[in-house]
Design a protein that fits this description.
The protein is about 60% helix and about 0% strand. It has helices at about 1-10, 40-70, 80-110, 110-115.
Length: about 120
């Protein structure tokens, strides 16, 4: 019984003896003791994430204004929740699919014809 009791008192998760990625890690400190700046990859990743957030917000605004402007006069019935969700998701899906294709077509045919 003493083996079962010690197992019951043991913690479920133990901290590693030498944490590699802790907050106290000095990975941004150079050998001279001066702080180093993040490299170009971190900057590019941060800028891309920021632009993606702005574009997502803009896309959401465009879709919501489109949903408001579609009324029962345009359709034979008012928009249900399913209709609104299908419009929203299909707009984002087709934008995801069309973006790379538009770039390829613009390179081959010219941007004037693709737009």
């Amino acid at each position: 019984m003493s083996g079962d009791e010690s197992a019951a008192e043991a913690p479920l998760m133990q901290e590693p003896e030498s944490p590699r990625n802790s907050i106290d890690d000095n990975s941004f400190i150079s050998e001279e003791g001066k702080p180093t700046s993040p490299n170009a990859f971190i900057w590019a990743l941060s800028i891309a994430a920021g632009i993606s957030g702005i574009l997502f917000g803009y896309d959401t605004g465009v879709i919501s204004s489109t949903l408001v402007s579609i009324g029962p006069a345009d359709l034979s019935h008012p928009l249900s929740t399913l209709d609104k969700s299908l419009i929203t998701s299909s707009t984002s899906l087709f934008a995801l699919i069309a973006s790379p294709l538009a770039g390829i077509l613009a390179d081959r045919r010219g941007r004037k014809y693709v737009v």
